[in-house]
Protein backbone atom coordinates (compact mmCIF):
# COMPACT_ATOMS: atom_id res chain seq x y z
CA UNK A 1 0.00 0.00 0.00
CA UNK A 2 1.28 3.49 -0.71
CA UNK A 3 0.90 6.95 0.71
CA UNK A 4 -1.44 7.76 -2.10
CA UNK A 5 -4.03 5.10 -1.42
CA UNK A 6 -7.40 6.87 -1.13
CA UNK A 7 -9.31 4.23 0.82
CA UNK A 8 -7.93 3.60 4.26
CA UNK A 9 -9.19 1.22 6.86
CA UNK A 10 -10.29 3.25 9.91
CA UNK A 11 -7.96 2.82 12.86
CA UNK A 12 -9.51 2.52 16.36
CA UNK A 13 -8.71 5.42 18.66
CA UNK A 14 -7.00 3.17 21.19
CA UNK A 15 -4.52 2.08 18.49
CA UNK A 16 -3.30 5.66 18.02
CA UNK A 17 0.13 6.39 19.50
CA UNK A 18 1.82 9.54 18.30
CA UNK A 19 4.77 9.05 20.62
CA UNK A 20 6.01 5.84 19.01
CA UNK A 21 8.51 6.84 16.33
CA UNK A 22 8.22 3.39 14.76
CA UNK A 23 4.64 4.23 13.76
CA UNK A 24 6.12 6.89 11.48
CA UNK A 25 8.30 4.51 9.47
CA UNK A 26 5.13 3.30 7.76
CA UNK A 27 4.00 5.61 4.95
CA UNK A 28 0.34 4.96 5.70
CA UNK A 29 -0.09 4.67 9.45
CA UNK A 30 0.47 8.32 10.47
CA UNK A 31 -2.31 9.43 8.11
CA UNK A 32 -4.68 6.81 9.49
CA UNK A 33 -3.92 7.95 13.04
CA UNK A 34 -4.62 11.57 12.09
CA UNK A 35 -7.88 10.62 10.31
CA UNK A 36 -9.07 8.90 13.49
CA UNK A 37 -8.06 11.78 15.73
CA UNK A 38 -9.74 14.46 13.59
CA UNK A 39 -12.89 12.38 13.44
CA UNK A 40 -13.10 11.09 17.01
CA UNK A 41 -11.02 13.27 19.30
CA UNK A 42 -9.55 16.33 17.55
CA UNK A 43 -7.91 17.70 20.70
CA UNK A 44 -6.70 14.43 22.17
CA UNK A 45 -4.74 13.76 25.34
CA UNK A 46 -1.76 11.67 24.27
CA UNK A 47 0.13 10.13 27.20
CA UNK A 48 3.90 9.92 26.87
CA UNK A 49 6.11 7.11 28.16
CA UNK A 50 7.48 9.11 31.14
CA UNK A 51 5.10 8.84 34.14
CA UNK A 52 2.67 11.78 34.39
CA UNK A 53 3.76 13.13 31.04
CA UNK A 54 1.66 13.76 27.96
CA UNK A 55 0.45 16.36 25.50
CA UNK A 56 -2.66 17.61 23.75
CA UNK A 57 -2.59 16.52 20.12
CA UNK A 58 -4.36 19.18 18.04
CA UNK A 59 -5.28 17.72 14.66
CA UNK A 60 -7.96 19.92 13.07
CA UNK A 61 -7.02 22.79 10.75
CA UNK A 62 -9.07 25.46 12.57
CA UNK A 63 -7.73 24.59 16.04
CA UNK A 64 -4.12 24.49 14.79
CA UNK A 65 -4.50 27.93 13.22
CA UNK A 66 -6.15 29.33 16.33
CA UNK A 67 -3.42 28.14 18.68
CA UNK A 68 -0.62 29.16 16.30
CA UNK A 69 -1.98 32.71 16.13
CA UNK A 70 -2.20 33.17 19.88
CA UNK A 71 1.33 33.11 21.31
CA UNK A 72 0.16 34.78 24.50
CA UNK A 73 -1.89 31.72 25.39
CA UNK A 74 0.16 29.12 23.52
CA UNK A 75 3.78 30.06 23.93
CA UNK A 76 6.87 28.81 22.11
CA UNK A 77 9.19 29.91 24.90
CA UNK A 78 8.84 26.61 26.79
CA UNK A 79 10.25 24.96 23.67
CA UNK A 80 8.74 23.72 20.48
CA UNK A 81 9.61 20.04 20.34
CA UNK A 82 8.20 17.26 22.49
CA UNK A 83 11.40 16.90 24.45
CA UNK A 84 11.18 18.37 27.98
CA UNK A 85 13.92 20.95 28.44
CA UNK A 86 14.54 22.35 31.93
CA UNK A 87 14.76 26.11 32.54
CA UNK A 88 18.55 26.26 32.54
CA UNK A 89 18.91 24.39 29.27
CA UNK A 90 16.11 26.33 27.68
CA UNK A 91 18.12 29.52 28.16
CA UNK A 92 21.25 27.92 26.71
CA UNK A 93 19.48 26.53 23.67
CA UNK A 94 16.93 29.27 22.94
CA UNK A 95 16.76 30.48 19.32
CA UNK A 96 14.34 32.62 17.31
CA UNK A 97 12.00 29.65 17.21
CA UNK A 98 11.68 29.50 20.99
CA UNK A 99 11.39 33.26 21.57
CA UNK A 100 8.15 35.27 21.65
CA UNK A 101 7.23 38.95 21.91
CA UNK A 102 9.44 41.96 21.14
CA UNK A 103 12.72 40.00 21.23
CA UNK A 104 11.32 37.55 18.70
CA UNK A 105 10.34 40.39 16.40
CA UNK A 106 13.79 41.99 16.72
CA UNK A 107 15.59 38.72 15.95
CA UNK A 108 13.32 37.95 13.03
CA UNK A 109 13.70 41.45 11.61
CA UNK A 110 17.46 40.92 11.36
CA UNK A 111 17.02 38.54 8.44
CA UNK A 112 13.45 39.07 7.27
CA UNK A 113 14.44 41.23 4.32
CA UNK A 114 16.74 38.48 3.03
CA UNK A 115 13.87 36.02 2.78
CA UNK A 116 11.19 38.04 0.98
CA UNK A 117 10.01 36.68 -2.40
CA UNK A 118 11.91 39.49 -4.10
CA UNK A 119 15.14 38.86 -2.18
CA UNK A 120 15.15 35.12 -2.80
CA UNK A 121 14.35 35.66 -6.50
CA UNK A 122 17.92 36.92 -6.85
CA UNK A 123 19.05 33.31 -6.32
CA UNK A 124 16.98 31.92 -9.18
CA UNK A 125 19.75 31.96 -11.79
CA UNK A 126 22.19 30.29 -9.38
CA UNK A 127 19.49 27.78 -8.43
CA UNK A 128 18.71 26.88 -12.01
CA UNK A 129 22.39 26.25 -12.74
CA UNK A 130 22.75 24.13 -9.60
CA UNK A 131 19.59 22.21 -10.48
CA UNK A 132 20.71 21.52 -14.03
CA UNK A 133 24.10 20.22 -12.84
CA UNK A 134 22.56 18.06 -10.09
CA UNK A 135 19.91 16.62 -12.40
CA UNK A 136 22.20 15.94 -15.34
CA UNK A 137 24.68 14.07 -13.14
CA UNK A 138 21.96 11.96 -11.49
CA UNK A 139 19.75 11.27 -14.50
CA UNK A 140 22.73 10.06 -16.56
CA UNK A 141 22.94 7.10 -14.15
CA UNK A 142 19.52 5.83 -15.25
CA UNK A 143 18.83 4.17 -11.93
CA UNK A 144 19.70 5.77 -8.57
CA UNK A 145 18.59 6.76 -5.07
CA UNK A 146 16.61 9.96 -5.59
CA UNK A 147 17.22 11.19 -2.05
CA UNK A 148 20.98 10.89 -2.17
CA UNK A 149 21.57 11.97 -5.74
CA UNK A 150 19.07 14.83 -6.04
CA UNK A 151 17.03 15.86 -3.01
CA UNK A 152 19.59 15.75 -0.21
CA UNK A 153 22.22 18.20 -1.38
CA UNK A 154 20.07 20.64 -3.20
CA UNK A 155 18.57 22.80 -0.39
CA UNK A 156 21.75 22.97 1.66
CA UNK A 157 23.73 24.14 -1.35
CA UNK A 158 21.38 27.10 -1.60
CA UNK A 159 21.61 27.86 2.11
CA UNK A 160 25.36 27.54 2.06
CA UNK A 161 25.39 30.23 -0.59
CA UNK A 162 23.08 32.49 1.40
CA UNK A 163 25.23 32.01 4.50
CA UNK A 164 28.38 32.65 2.50
CA UNK A 165 29.82 29.16 3.16
CA UNK A 166 32.52 28.17 0.66
CA UNK A 167 31.57 25.36 -1.71
CA UNK A 168 34.17 22.93 -0.37
CA UNK A 169 32.52 23.03 3.09
CA UNK A 170 28.99 22.31 1.90
CA UNK A 171 29.35 18.55 2.37
CA UNK A 172 30.10 19.08 6.06
CA UNK A 173 26.96 21.18 6.46
CA UNK A 174 24.83 18.44 4.91
CA UNK A 175 26.15 15.83 7.30
CA UNK A 176 25.66 18.04 10.34
CA UNK A 177 22.11 18.82 9.27
CA UNK A 178 21.21 15.15 8.92
CA UNK A 179 22.80 14.19 12.22
CA UNK A 180 20.99 16.98 14.07
CA UNK A 181 17.49 16.46 12.82
CA UNK A 182 17.60 12.68 12.57
CA UNK A 183 18.13 12.31 16.31
CA UNK A 184 15.49 9.61 16.63
CA UNK A 185 16.70 7.57 13.67
CA UNK A 186 19.67 5.24 14.24
CA UNK A 187 20.64 5.57 10.55
CA UNK A 188 21.51 9.25 11.09
CA UNK A 189 22.10 10.06 14.73
CA UNK A 190 25.32 9.55 16.64
CA UNK A 191 23.33 9.74 19.90
CA UNK A 192 19.70 8.67 19.94
CA UNK A 193 17.28 10.99 21.74
CA UNK A 194 15.83 9.40 24.88
CA UNK A 195 18.82 7.14 25.50
CA UNK A 196 21.08 7.51 28.50
CA UNK A 197 23.91 8.69 26.27
CA UNK A 198 21.80 11.65 25.14
CA UNK A 199 21.70 13.01 28.73
CA UNK A 200 25.31 14.14 28.36
CA UNK A 201 24.23 16.48 25.57
CA UNK A 202 21.33 18.20 27.30
CA UNK A 203 22.90 21.58 26.59
CA UNK A 204 22.80 21.06 22.86
CA UNK A 205 20.06 21.52 20.30
CA UNK A 206 18.50 18.13 19.47
CA UNK A 207 20.91 16.82 22.15
CA UNK A 208 23.26 16.20 19.29
CA UNK A 209 27.06 16.49 19.50
CA UNK A 210 27.00 17.58 15.84
CA UNK A 211 25.74 20.95 17.17
CA UNK A 212 29.19 21.62 18.63
CA UNK A 213 30.75 21.30 15.20
CA UNK A 214 28.13 23.60 13.69
CA UNK A 215 28.73 26.21 16.41
CA UNK A 216 32.49 26.11 15.93
CA UNK A 217 32.09 26.44 12.20
CA UNK A 218 29.60 29.33 12.50
CA UNK A 219 31.90 31.23 14.85
CA UNK A 220 34.77 30.88 12.43
CA UNK A 221 32.62 32.36 9.65
CA UNK A 222 31.39 35.13 11.97
CA UNK A 223 34.94 36.14 12.91
CA UNK A 224 35.84 36.46 9.24
CA UNK A 225 32.71 38.50 8.41
CA UNK A 226 32.76 40.89 11.36
CA UNK A 227 33.09 44.45 10.06
CA UNK A 228 33.58 43.27 6.48
CA UNK A 229 30.33 44.56 4.98
CA UNK A 230 29.30 41.40 3.08
CA UNK A 231 25.71 40.78 2.00
CA UNK A 232 25.37 37.19 3.26
CA UNK A 233 23.24 36.14 6.25
CA UNK A 234 26.19 35.70 8.62
CA UNK A 235 27.50 39.18 7.80
CA UNK A 236 24.09 40.59 8.50
CA UNK A 237 23.83 38.81 11.85
CA UNK A 238 27.25 39.95 13.08
CA UNK A 239 27.19 43.49 11.71
CA UNK A 240 23.62 44.65 12.29
CA UNK A 241 22.36 45.33 15.85
CA UNK A 242 18.85 43.99 16.62
CA UNK A 243 16.13 46.66 16.58
CA UNK A 244 15.29 46.23 20.28
CA UNK A 245 18.73 47.55 21.21
CA UNK A 246 19.79 44.28 22.88
CA UNK A 247 22.97 43.07 21.17
CA UNK A 248 23.19 39.58 19.72
CA UNK A 249 25.13 37.49 22.24
CA UNK A 250 27.49 34.81 20.98
CA UNK A 251 24.95 32.26 22.17
CA UNK A 252 22.19 34.04 20.21
CA UNK A 253 24.43 33.85 17.17
CA UNK A 254 25.24 30.13 17.66
CA UNK A 255 21.58 29.22 17.95
CA UNK A 256 20.48 31.42 15.03
CA UNK A 257 23.18 30.00 12.77
CA UNK A 258 22.29 26.46 13.70
CA UNK A 259 18.59 27.10 13.16
CA UNK A 260 19.30 28.34 9.63
CA UNK A 261 21.39 25.27 8.85
CA UNK A 262 18.73 22.90 10.11
CA UNK A 263 15.42 24.56 9.25
CA UNK A 264 15.74 24.69 5.51
CA UNK A 265 17.78 21.58 4.96
CA UNK A 266 15.87 18.42 5.76
CA UNK A 267 12.46 20.03 5.33
CA UNK A 268 12.97 21.06 1.72
CA UNK A 269 14.77 17.79 0.98
CA UNK A 270 11.72 15.83 2.12
CA UNK A 271 9.30 18.11 0.28
CA UNK A 272 11.17 17.34 -2.94
CA UNK A 273 11.24 13.58 -2.35
CA UNK A 274 7.58 13.29 -1.32
CA UNK A 275 6.66 15.27 -4.41
CA UNK A 276 8.60 13.07 -6.77
CA UNK A 277 7.03 10.04 -5.13
CA UNK A 278 3.57 11.52 -5.65
CA UNK A 279 4.39 12.31 -9.29
CA UNK A 280 5.57 8.73 -9.83
CA UNK A 281 2.40 7.34 -8.28
CA UNK A 282 0.15 9.78 -10.21
CA UNK A 283 1.42 9.71 -13.80
CA UNK A 284 -1.68 11.62 -14.96
CA UNK A 285 -0.76 14.56 -12.72
CA UNK A 286 2.87 14.38 -13.86
CA UNK A 287 1.78 14.45 -17.48
CA UNK A 288 -0.40 17.50 -16.89
CA UNK A 289 2.56 19.41 -15.53
CA UNK A 290 4.87 18.20 -18.27
CA UNK A 291 2.43 19.31 -20.97
CA UNK A 292 1.65 22.58 -19.26
CA UNK A 293 4.60 23.86 -17.17
CA UNK A 294 2.71 27.09 -16.40
CA UNK A 295 0.76 24.98 -13.88
CA UNK A 296 3.91 24.32 -11.83
CA UNK A 297 3.92 27.50 -9.67
CA UNK A 298 0.35 26.71 -8.51
CA UNK A 299 1.15 23.00 -8.16
CA UNK A 300 3.94 23.86 -5.72
CA UNK A 301 1.22 24.57 -3.13
CA UNK A 302 -0.11 21.05 -3.57
CA UNK A 303 3.45 19.67 -3.38
CA UNK A 304 3.77 21.45 -0.04
CA UNK A 305 0.40 20.33 1.30
CA UNK A 306 0.95 16.76 0.19
CA UNK A 307 4.48 16.44 1.48
CA UNK A 308 3.95 18.09 4.91
CA UNK A 309 7.63 17.65 5.81
CA UNK A 310 7.11 18.82 9.39
CA UNK A 311 4.54 16.83 11.32
CA UNK A 312 4.29 19.13 14.31
CA UNK A 313 5.52 21.99 16.42
CA UNK A 314 4.70 22.32 20.06
CA UNK A 315 3.33 25.13 22.22
CA UNK A 316 2.74 25.31 25.98
CA UNK A 317 -0.39 26.79 27.60
CA UNK A 318 0.42 29.91 29.63
CA UNK A 319 -2.98 29.84 31.39
CA UNK A 320 -6.03 27.62 31.77
CA UNK A 321 -7.89 27.79 28.50
CA UNK A 322 -10.11 25.96 26.03
CA UNK A 323 -9.35 24.59 22.58
CA UNK A 324 -11.66 22.55 20.35
CA UNK A 325 -14.05 22.04 23.29
CA UNK A 326 -11.34 20.69 25.62
CA UNK A 327 -10.17 22.30 28.82
CA UNK A 328 -6.43 22.83 28.79
CA UNK A 329 -4.51 23.60 31.96
CA UNK A 330 -1.69 26.05 32.34
CA UNK A 331 1.68 24.40 31.70
CA UNK A 332 0.33 21.60 29.51
CA UNK A 333 1.98 20.84 26.20
CA UNK A 334 -0.15 21.55 23.13
CA UNK A 335 1.13 20.00 19.92
CA UNK A 336 0.02 21.35 16.55
CA UNK A 337 -0.01 18.55 13.96
CA UNK A 338 0.32 20.57 10.76
CA UNK A 339 0.41 17.42 8.65
CA UNK A 340 -2.98 16.39 10.00
CA UNK A 341 -4.41 19.87 9.34
CA UNK A 342 -3.27 19.43 5.75
CA UNK A 343 -5.64 16.46 5.39
CA UNK A 344 -8.60 18.05 7.14
CA UNK A 345 -11.70 17.11 5.15
CA UNK A 346 -13.59 20.20 6.32
CA UNK A 347 -11.03 22.39 4.53
CA UNK A 348 -9.77 20.26 1.63
CA UNK A 349 -12.06 18.51 -0.78
CA UNK A 350 -10.92 14.84 -1.01
CA UNK A 351 -7.83 15.59 1.10
CA UNK A 352 -6.12 12.29 0.31
CA UNK A 353 -6.16 13.05 -3.40
CA UNK A 354 -3.04 14.54 -4.94
CA UNK A 355 -4.34 17.25 -7.27
CA UNK A 356 -1.82 19.62 -8.85
CA UNK A 357 -4.57 22.10 -9.75
CA UNK A 358 -6.15 22.21 -6.28
CA UNK A 359 -7.48 25.70 -5.44
CA UNK A 360 -7.85 27.09 -2.91
CA UNK A 361 -5.04 25.37 -1.07
CA UNK A 362 -4.91 26.75 2.43
CA UNK A 363 -2.23 24.37 3.71
CA UNK A 364 -0.42 24.56 7.04
CA UNK A 365 2.96 23.32 5.85
CA UNK A 366 4.74 26.50 6.99
CA UNK A 367 2.41 27.18 9.92
CA UNK A 368 -0.21 29.87 9.34
CA UNK A 369 -0.68 33.44 10.32
CA UNK A 370 1.23 33.34 13.61
CA UNK A 371 4.51 35.04 14.49
CA UNK A 372 6.58 31.90 13.81
CA UNK A 373 5.35 31.42 10.26
CA UNK A 374 8.27 29.88 8.36
CA UNK A 375 10.91 32.47 7.55
CA UNK A 376 12.12 30.43 4.56
CA UNK A 377 8.75 29.78 2.89
CA UNK A 378 9.50 31.85 -0.24
CA UNK A 379 12.86 30.18 -0.60
CA UNK A 380 11.36 26.71 -0.25
CA UNK A 381 8.69 27.56 -2.82
CA UNK A 382 11.32 28.83 -5.25
CA UNK A 383 13.44 25.71 -4.81
CA UNK A 384 10.50 23.42 -5.47
CA UNK A 385 9.36 25.37 -8.49
CA UNK A 386 12.79 25.49 -10.11
CA UNK A 387 13.53 21.85 -9.38
CA UNK A 388 10.34 20.57 -10.99
CA UNK A 389 10.50 23.05 -13.88
CA UNK A 390 13.91 21.58 -14.67
CA UNK A 391 13.18 17.93 -13.87
CA UNK A 392 9.89 17.29 -15.67
CA UNK A 393 10.94 18.27 -19.21
CA UNK A 394 13.97 15.98 -18.90
CA UNK A 395 11.86 12.88 -18.17
CA UNK A 396 9.69 10.76 -20.37
CA UNK A 397 9.15 8.30 -17.51
CA UNK A 398 10.16 7.68 -13.91
CA UNK A 399 9.49 4.52 -11.88
CA UNK A 400 10.22 3.31 -8.36
CA UNK A 401 12.76 0.54 -8.02
CA UNK A 402 12.29 0.18 -4.27
CA UNK A 403 9.78 1.04 -1.59
CA UNK A 404 10.51 4.41 0.05
CA UNK A 405 12.17 4.19 3.47
CA UNK A 406 10.80 6.72 5.94
CA UNK A 407 12.73 8.58 8.63
CA UNK A 408 11.96 7.20 12.09
CA UNK A 409 10.55 10.39 13.54
CA UNK A 410 7.23 11.85 14.64
CA UNK A 411 8.68 15.32 13.97
CA UNK A 412 9.99 15.32 10.40
CA UNK A 413 7.95 13.49 7.82
CA UNK A 414 10.91 12.33 5.82
CA UNK A 415 11.93 9.84 3.17
CA UNK A 416 15.52 8.70 3.52
CA UNK A 417 15.76 6.41 0.52
CA UNK A 418 13.83 6.14 -2.73
CA UNK A 419 15.19 4.01 -5.57
CA UNK A 420 14.09 5.28 -9.00
CA UNK A 421 14.70 4.45 -12.63
CA UNK A 422 14.26 7.06 -15.35
CA UNK A 423 13.72 7.18 -19.08
CA UNK A 424 14.97 10.46 -20.50
CA UNK A 425 12.87 12.61 -22.80
C1 LIG B 1 9.45 22.82 2.70
C2 LIG B 1 10.36 23.33 3.51
C3 LIG B 1 10.04 23.92 4.87
C4 LIG B 1 9.07 23.58 5.77
C5 LIG B 1 8.03 22.48 5.64
C6 LIG B 1 9.19 24.46 6.91
C7 LIG B 1 8.34 24.47 8.01
C8 LIG B 1 8.37 25.40 9.02
C9 LIG B 1 7.37 25.54 10.04
C10 LIG B 1 6.12 24.67 10.18
C11 LIG B 1 7.75 26.57 10.85
C12 LIG B 1 6.95 27.12 12.04
C13 LIG B 1 7.49 26.70 13.38
C14 LIG B 1 6.54 26.98 14.52
O1 LIG B 1 5.36 27.24 14.29
O2 LIG B 1 6.97 26.90 15.69
C15 LIG B 1 9.00 27.07 10.36
C16 LIG B 1 9.74 28.09 10.92
C17 LIG B 1 10.98 28.48 10.43
N1 LIG B 1 11.56 28.12 9.24
FE1 LIG B 1 10.85 26.81 7.91
N2 LIG B 1 10.26 25.29 6.69
C18 LIG B 1 10.79 25.00 5.46
C19 LIG B 1 11.85 25.63 4.84
C20 LIG B 1 12.64 26.58 5.41
C21 LIG B 1 13.78 27.20 4.80
C22 LIG B 1 14.27 26.94 3.37
C23 LIG B 1 14.31 28.03 5.71
C24 LIG B 1 15.54 28.87 5.47
C25 LIG B 1 16.47 29.03 6.31
C26 LIG B 1 13.47 27.98 6.91
C27 LIG B 1 13.67 28.69 8.08
C28 LIG B 1 12.77 28.76 9.13
C29 LIG B 1 12.99 29.57 10.33
C30 LIG B 1 14.22 30.42 10.61
C31 LIG B 1 11.86 29.40 11.14
C32 LIG B 1 11.58 30.03 12.51
C33 LIG B 1 10.73 31.26 12.32
C34 LIG B 1 10.34 31.92 13.64
O3 LIG B 1 10.37 31.28 14.70
O4 LIG B 1 10.00 33.11 13.59
N3 LIG B 1 12.47 27.08 6.68
N4 LIG B 1 9.35 26.37 9.21
Structure notes:
With 425 residues, the protein is α+β, with helices and mostly antiparallel strands. The chain has one domain (13-424): Orthogonal Bundle (Cytochrome p450), CATH 1.10.630. The protein is 44% helix and 12% strand. The strands form four sheets. Strands 1-2-8-5-3 form a five-stranded mixed beta sheet. A three-stranded antiparallel beta sheet has the order 4-12-9. A hairpin with a 2-residue loop joins strand 6 (321-323) and strand 7 (326-328). Helix 9 (170-181) packs across helix 10 (210-225) and helix 10 (210-225) crosses helix 12. The radius of gyration is 21 Å and the shape is globular. The model is unreliable at 1-6 (pLDDT under 50). It binds protoporphyrin IX containing FE. Protoporphyrin IX containing FE (HEM) is lined by residues 68, 76, 80, 96-97, 108, 159, 259-260, 263-264, 267-268, 271, 309-310, 313, 338, 365-367, 372, 374-376, 379-380.
Amino acid sequence: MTLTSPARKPLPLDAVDLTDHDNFTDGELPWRMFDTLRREDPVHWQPEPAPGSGFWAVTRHADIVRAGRDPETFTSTEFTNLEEVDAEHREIRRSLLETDGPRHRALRRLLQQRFTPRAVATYEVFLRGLTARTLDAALAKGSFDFVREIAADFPINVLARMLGVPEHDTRRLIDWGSRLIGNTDPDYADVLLGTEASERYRDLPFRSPAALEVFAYGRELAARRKGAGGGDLVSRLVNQPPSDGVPLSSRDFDNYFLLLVVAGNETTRHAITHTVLALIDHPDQRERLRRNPSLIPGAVEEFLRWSSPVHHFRRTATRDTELGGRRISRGEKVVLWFSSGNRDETVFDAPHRFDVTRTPNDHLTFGKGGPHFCLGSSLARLELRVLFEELLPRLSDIRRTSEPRYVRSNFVNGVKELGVEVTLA
